[in-house]
Every structure is written in structure tokens, then in C-alpha cells.
Amino acid sequence: MSLQPIAARRFLLRERGLGLAPKFLAMNWLFVLCVGLLAGVGYTALYSAAGGSPTPYANSQIFRFFGALLLMFAIAMVDIRVIAKFSWVAYALGILLLLVVMKFGHTGLGAKRWITVGGMEIQPSELMKLFLILALASYLHRASYERVANLLFLLPAVLIILLPVGLILKEPNLGTAIITALLGSTLLLGAGVRWWKFAILLALIAIAAPLIYHHLHAYQRARIITFLNPGSDPLGAGYNIIQSKIALGSGGFFGQGYLHGTQNQLNFLPEKQTDFVFTIIAEEFGFLGSVAVLALLASIIAIAFYIATTCTHQFGRLVALGIGTNFFLYCFVNLSMVMGLIPVGGVPLPLISYGGSALTAVMLGFGVLMSVHVHRDVTFASGDD
Amino acid sequence: MQRDNQHRNAFTRRALLIGAGQLAVFTAIGARLYNLQVSQHGKYALMAKQNAISERLTAPRRGLITDRFGATLAGNQQHWRALFMQALAPDPQAVLDNFTKLVPLSVAERVRITADLADRPGYIPVMLKDYLDWPDMAAIEVNTPNLPGVIVEVGTSRIYPLGPGLAHAVGYVARPNQAEVQAQPVLALPGMRIGRTGVEAAQDLLLRGSPGSVQTETNVHGQVVRNVAENPGTPGQTVTLALDAGLQSLAVQSLTKQAGAAVVLDTQTGEILAMASSPSFDPALFDKGVPTEIWDQWMANPAHPLENKATAGLFAPGSTFKPTAALAAMKKGALTADTILFCPGFLKLGDHIFWCDNHVAHGHITVTTALQVSCDVFFYQVALMTGIDDLAAMAHKLGIGTDLQLDIPGGAPGLVPTHRWARAQGIVWEPGSTVVQGIGQGYTQVTPLALATMIARIASGVAIGPHITRRIAGALQSGSLPGAWPALDIDDRHLAVVRQGLFEVVNTPAGTGYGARLTLPNVQMAGKTGTAQVRDDTGAEKGVNFNDETIPWVDRPNALFVAYAPVAAPRYAVAVVVEHGNWGSESAAPIAHDLITYALLHDPAGRDAPLPPQPTPLAAPA
Questions:
Q1: d(CA B80, CA B78)
Q2: Interchain CB distance below 8 Å, B47 and A302
Q3: Which of A171, A362, B89, B206 is the most exposed place for a label (fewest CB within 10 A)?
Q4: How many Å lie between the alpha carbon of A102 and the closest alpha carbon of chain B?
Q5: In the structure, how many helices (H) and strands (E) does chain B have?
Q6: Among positive and negative, which fits the CA dihedral B201, B203, B204, B207?
Q7: Interface test with chain A among B5, B27, B34, B37, by most A beta carbons within 10 Å
Q8: Through-space distance between the first and last CA atoms of chain A, rounded to whole angstroms
């Protein structure tokens, strides 16, 4: 092949990619800014959660964030096609970790969810969501729009979703299982699976719901009952929801002032540094602060969708959609939980809550998202094209 | 390429739909936030406040009781105490157990606490332990995490700087009993005391004040983080008494080792400048609860330390009644200044002989002389001439045998017999009974306060009412104003006759009170001795040697002395009763002398401010 110099350059760009420095500059810096701002919000909230002290939460969390940020940058530099190539390995690793956690994981809050790797506690279900996105996107990447309509083609995709969902459900971790299933479904939807199939699926779930409820653990049922009537036992299971709502409501429009939220400072908020971190912001900065944080979170999702729609290859599109949706689901479940809209489940508010596992998983995903953005124009033919 | 575009367009469509759905969800969350944070803010803000702020009532500071110059007679002392807010403790019994490990509680205390916990409303803390010492307090503070709801606070206990010296007049406070708490729930507050006797009881409501409240911010464990707002309530009012602490101390000192009472009155206003009753007790003991062994001691003491003998001790007035008898006879017209009666040393009535003191014959004497030498036979005849009903009427007019409306509770009116009274009692009245009324024996019973009132009224000619409260919250009480009392409805000439007799008692060598005459220049005291038998009311035993050590203490006569000074312009009246003190001139008159001397030197009634320091030291409080 003899090519013109410019064409040769395009070829190089498409086939080999850019150099490291141009790649780094090619990242979506608005997105990075939003991520950084959210980490700042997290630091602020955790400083307050400790009663106005950088220890024990804020400093160690921001430390983790910078570590995870470096990880994100590193992954962003990796060619998206390489990532796609390893997506099955990642998926297999995720399944393996879920099996390990079932066998050796340590128990917290009545469920085996955690394993310790090299002194770091990780929650495999968090990683699994990212790996599922990669594997599913990789599988769907190969399919043409017509083939997606084929039920036989869809069956493996559904199995790819159900395998980890089943394992997570077994931990048991109902919330993450539902989120994982929703995530997989969203990817199928993005890939072009026809709407009526989802309608059938929803009908099936509606039928199965009582059966599932029957098999739920006592604490899971308690959560649902508590959700339906939080006032029934104000110092028991409903306590969290009530205290959380009091914290939000007492914030008012302008908030009680930084470090002056009584609910927070007097420890009425349960797990305030982790799952209920949003109540600190809401109580101390009011509706104004809450909406600002909501807007930041929404920006992250919007940019992910922008990246998805501007990507030239299906793998990148689906991965960006999945990562954006995953982040959305985190926010949705956490915020709804805090506001007493859905039953309480151990879902943190990403980038703000204290804890390393979710942060690492989310930032890994953001690294992949940045890689999609950087490599949006690479030649990455789908199987049928 | 075209298929890829189709693929891409389909994805973009769906991504936009999904994105729109997610945006809708975020909007819904925002709306929910608006609903919670703005629309329902009031409701949740209140809930947050209730969450964090707990309010409890606190006992007000009890008002001070001071003497007329502001010296504290009843005050408050701070100490530590542990309270328990059961509403803040998830498991009150566990907290109680933890507390007991740190500060041992007796079984009785635990029973009381359990009972209190059961029936106190949540906003009233329950007393766990009062009068904590420092190590206990520190132990509790260190262990607060294990003691949710336990509050260590500064409490106050009642102190009485004069101690037993004023136990009767000022009274004491104690913990309210169950019935009182039920009637007035505010008394359930730890630290609330109720006045039981004396001024503490009489002015209890004013002294008590009204409770305050503390709003404390508590964390989720019920531990107090800080006090948000403190409303000290209304402290009790200060009650200023007419008493002069110096004079009081002297009165107490004078009666040491004796049983009896002494009262000093302002003859113009009826203010009680000193009122001592001996023996006494430590009034502060009631604040904590009197130990059983001390209570038993008090009960076993024949001299009745708990009784206020000044207002409730009933004694035969003996010869101190003679001025009253003289006034009664003069009012009836049976006696004048010039009437001469004969004293052969005895009076024979029927076949009964009534002796004069020491069987001495005083001969032909006037009423003035009869008072001076305390002739019994003269007053036997006066009594017969007057009759008991007129004697009683005069006695009542002078404050004897009548309710004096004293402003502290527990006083006894005493008794001066009348025919009507005798009939009511089923007593057959015989002339012999009338005879001894003239010398203050028989059925007549008076309190030292009544005697002081009597002599004050005779001295001033004003129908003063004795009272102990001078100011409440700074406001001078109407009775303490000069000119507040009406004139006695007694002829001035009669009073002059009696006053002359009383002057001669003290200021003439023949007078029975000559030994107690004042040694101050240009000022004289008038008075009357009294020696009242306690064993034989008839007077038949008169003349035995009272100093005979073989007579048991309780059978010896009571010694009395009433006096006023200065004779020229009476201001101070005093009555002293020394139980079983034998001759009034021996044991009671010297005390009266000392009190009058002190009063004249320091003139407490004439001042409203303490004297500047001076060479003559005030008697130091006990």
C-alpha cells in the first residue's frame, strides 16, 4: 500500500494511536474538573463529619482520591482496543473474585461482601459492574443492528448479565444485584434491543417479585417494611431514614452553616461519613448546596453521555453509556435512600462518601471512559461491519 | 459505513432517551429535595431541634434570709450532685448499675431512685446522689460514656451561719415529702426544699422562687454536649429580718448551758431584734436529712431542743404578771396610785393561807412599792378586787394569753383563765384560784414572746404586734414603720404608775431587780422579776430555799425577767425565761441586763445600716 503522508498520519492515528502527551491532553478536562470538584465536596463533607477535623476521614479519603486519579489517568492512556481485548479476562476475574468472596470473604452487616487483597479491602461486586460493562460491550460490539434483534444472539448477553447478578444476590447484596441487572439492561437497550422485550422482562419481574420477596433475608425484608413505614420503629430500622430526613429538612434553603448542622455534629446521622454523607451537605449547605452537588453529579453523567454519542465505535459508545449509567445508578440509589424514597442499601455516593472500594471502582471506570474519549476516532471495526 | 451510521444513529437516539430518563430522575430528586428542605423545612427543623435539644427544669436559688443589716442568716452553699435524665438513657437500669459501681448507693437510695424514676415526668431529672465529694464527681465525669443521661451539676444546700443560734426563729428546710410533691409537682425538682419551721416556713413561697430551665444539646447517646440556653428562673426573694445578728448571738450566748428563751423587742414597732431558745439544734442537718442517732438524742433531751420556747414555750408568768394585775385593777377603779393595802406576810382566805415571798410582812404599801418589792399579798388582794375576767381582759390587751399573729408559725397563745374558760373546762372556780392569778400562778400560761410584748406595750403605750420580718425583697413591711401601731387603750396615768413601780424594781436598792441595774451613764432600765413555781401552783411553798441543791432540776422554779429601757424614752423591751433557773433576779435579770446594755450601745432599732467598726466588738457568731 502506498499512502499519502497525511493519509499515513491518519492511518497511524487510527491504527497505532497518539503519543502519550497528546493523549493526555486529549482527555476531557471538563470531566476531570467535575470529578475534582466532587472530590473537593467530599473532602468538605468528611471534614465536617469528623466534627471539623481532617482526620480520620477527609485526609485519608483525599489521599485515596489522588491515588485513584493517577490510576484513572493511566487507564485513560491505554488504547481502548486493548481494553476491549482484555474485557473477557476482566469479566472472568470479576466472577472469580465473587466466588472467592463467597468462600473466603469476611462478613459485614450480615453479608459476605468484602475480601482483603494486599491489605486493601475490596468489594468485588463494585469491580464486577465495570467488568460486566466491558464484557457486555465487547459482546454487543460485534453485533449489527439487525443481529441485536436476534433472540439467539441475545441469550448469551443475558447470561453474561445474570451470572454476576446471581452471585451478588447470593452474597447477599440485593441492592447491588438490582443495580447490576439494571446496568446490563441499559447496555442492551443502548445496543438496540427492541423495547417490547424489555416490556416482557418487566412483566416477568412483576410476577416473580412476590417469589423473590419470599426468599429475601430477614434484614432485607426489614428494610422494605421499614421503607414502607419508617415511623413504626423510630429507634430501630427506621431510625436511619427518619434521622436522615430530619437532617435534610432542617437544612432549609441556605443550610445551617458549615460545621453547624446539629444532626451531623451531634451524631444523630448514622453512617454519616459513608452512605449518608449527602445529609451533611444538605443540612449544612441547605437546598442551594444540595442542588449544586446534584448539578455536579449530573454533569458527570451528561459528559459520559456526550462521550458515548461522539464515539465512532460501538464498544466505546456502550462502555461510555454503561459507565455513565453506573454512576447515575450510584447517585440515584444513594440519594433516593437518603431521602427515604427507596429502601436503605449500602450504596455510597460516589466520589463523596468515605471508603476506598467504590471510589477505586468508579475511578477505574472513569479511566476507561477517558480512554473511550481519547480513542473515540480509532478504527475499531465491529464483527459484522 | 451506512450500516454503521444506522447503528450509530440508533444508539444516539436511545442514549438520548436514556439520558433524558436519567435527567428526569435527577429532576425528581431535586424536587424531592425542594419538598424536604424548603417546603417541609419548618417541620424537620423542629424535629432536629427536639432531637438535639432537651430541656430540663432546674431548681431556683432559694432566697436569702438576712438580719436587719444584711448579715446572712440563711444562705446557700454549692455542692456537687448527680442527676439522671432517664429520657436520655436507652437502658436506665444499666446506667443505674454502672453508677452504683462508681458511687455506692444504699439499698434505700436505690429503692427511692427506682420509685422516683417510675413516677417522675421525663423533664424532671431524678436525684441520684447529693453531696458528692470530689473523687466521686471525678469518677462520674470520667465515665460519662457509660452513664448516658447522668448529669453532674452544682446544687445548693442551705447553710445557716449562726448555726443553732437561730434554728428556731429562722427555722430550717427539708426535702418535700411525697404528699407535698403530689400537691406541687415543682417540688419534685432535685434541690427543691420546703421550709418547715420559722421564717423558712412562713416565707417559703417567696423564698422558693420559680424554677428555671436548661436547654442542653445532647448527642445521640444522650450525653450533654453543651448548654444552649439557660433560664435561671426567678431566684427566691431575700427576706430581711428585724433581728440583729449581734444581739441574737449575745442572747444565745447568755442562755448557753441553760434552758430557756430570751426575746428583745423594739417597743415602738414590735420588731423582734433577738429571739433565742435554748437548747437548740443544727438546722442545716434537716437539709441533708437528720441522722437517726441525732434525732433520737433530740427526742430524749428533757429540755426539748426542737421547741421554740420563745414562741411556744408556756410558763407561768409569776410576778412578771403583777404589772398587768395592777393595770387591770386600776382600770376597774379598784386601785389607784395612792391605794394602800396591808401585807402581814400572808393572806388567809377561808382556812387556806397564802404566803408572801419568804413570809416577809411588807406592811402598808402602795402599788408602786408592791411592784418594787414584789409583794405577793398586795397582789392577792388586787386579784380578789379585780376578778379574773377583768384580769384576763387586761392581759389580752397587753398581749398575754392571746394570739399575737406572729409572722412565723408554731406560736402558742398561752392562757389567762376566765370564768367562761373555767366553765368550759368543767373547773369549779374558787376564790383561792383567783388569789394566785394576781401573782401569775395558777392556770395562767404565757410565752416569753407574750411577756416581751406585754412589757413593750406597757413601756411604749403602743399596741405593737411582735413580728420578725422587716423587709421582703427590700420593701419595708408596714409593721416595721414607726407609728404603724395604734395606742394602747390604757389610761396614761395608770401606765405611769406601773412604770414608776418597774423603775423602782431596778433602780432602788429595795427593788428585786436592783442587781441588774444598768451601769451606763444617764440611762435607766425598768423591769420586773418573776419566779414561777412549777411544782405547786398554789404558792403555799413560797419561801423555801430554791437554791437547795437537793431539789431536782425539773422541780426548781422558772426564773423570769421582763424589762425595758431607756426609761425616759423606751425603745427596747426584753423578756427572759430561764427554765428552772430559781430566782428571776439571779438568773434571768443578768441576761436581760446584758441584752439591754448591748441594745442601748448598738441601737439596732434606731438604725438601718450596720455600725461602722468600733472598739466594742460585736459578739462573734457561733
A1: 7
A2: no
A3: B206
A4: 33
A5: 22, 21
A6: negative
A7: B37
A8: 22
Q: B9 to chain A nearest CA, in Å?
A: 9
Superfamily of domain B58-241: Penicillin-binding protein 2a (Domain 2) (3.90.1310.10)
Residue A18 resides in a domain: no
* Count of beta carbons in the 10 Å neighbourhood of residue B60: 22
Render pLDDT for B363-422 as a digit per residue (tens, 0 to 9): 999 999 999 999 999 999 999 999 999 999 999 999 999 999 999 998 899 999 999 999
Confidence of residue A116 (pLDDT cuts 50, 70, 90): low
Task: Give the integer Cα–Cα distance in Å for B480 and B354.
Answer: 44
Assess if residue A205 is contained within a domain.
yes
For residues B156 and B61, is the Cβ–Cβ distance under 8 A?
A: yes
* pLDDT of A383: 54
The residue-averaged pLDDT of B115-129 equals 77
Confidence (pLDDT) at B258: 87
Pairing of strands A111-117, B194-195: unpaired
Which chain A residues contact residue B90 at CB under 8 A?
235
Closest chain B residue to A340 measured between Cα atoms?
B32
Please check whether the domain covering B245-606 is classified as CATH 3.30.70.1660: no
A314 vs B contacts (CB less than 8 Å): 7-8, 11
A383 falls within a domain = no
Q: Do A309 and B12 touch (CB under 8 A)?
A: yes
Segment B536-562, tens digit of pLDDT: 543 444 444 445 566 777 778 889 999
Q: A254 contacts in B (CB within 8 Å)?
A: none
Look up the domain containing A46 and give its range.
29-374
In total, the C-beta contacts within 8 angstroms joining chain A to chain B are 144
**Contact check, Cβ <8 Å, B32/A252:** no
Q: Is residue A13 part of a domain?
A: no
Q: Do B14 and A189 touch (CB under 8 A)?
A: yes
Are B284 and B159 spatial neighbours (Cβ–Cβ below 8 Å)? yes
Q: A280 contacts in B (CB within 8 Å)?
A: none
| Count of CB atoms situated within 10 Å of the CB of B432 | 17
Answer yes or no: is pLDDT of A3 > 50.
no
Q: B211 is written with which cell numbers?
A: 424554677
How many domains in chain A?
1
Cβ distance of A385 and B4 shorter than 8 Å: yes
Contact status of B219 with chain A (Cβ, < 8 Å) = yes
- Extract the C-alpha cell encoding B350: 377561808
Domain extents for chain B?
A: 58-241, 245-606
C-alpha cell at B431: 376564790
Q: What is the mean pLDDT of residues A307-331?
A: 93
Beta bridge partners of B389: none
> In the predicted model, what is the mean pLDDT of residues A72-87?
93
Asked if pLDDT for residue B150 goes beyond 70, the answer is yes
Task: Grade residue B143 by pLDDT with cuts at 50, 70 and 90.
Answer: confident
pLDDT digits (tens, 9 = 90+) for A20-55: 888 888 899 999 999 999 999 999 999 998 888 898
* Nearest chain A residue (CA) to B23: A298
Per-residue confidence at A226, pLDDT binned at 50, 70, 90? low
User: Which range among A7-16, A117-126, A253-262, A369-378 shows the weakest confidence by mean pLDDT?
Assistant: A7-16
Q: Which B positions 146-185 lie with beta carbon below 8 A of chain A? A: none
Q: Which residue of A has its CA nearest to B225?
A: A266
Q: How far is B129 from chain A (nearest CA, A)?
A: 28
Computed over every residue of chain B, the mean pLDDT equals 85
Cβ proximity of A126 and A361 under 8 Å: yes
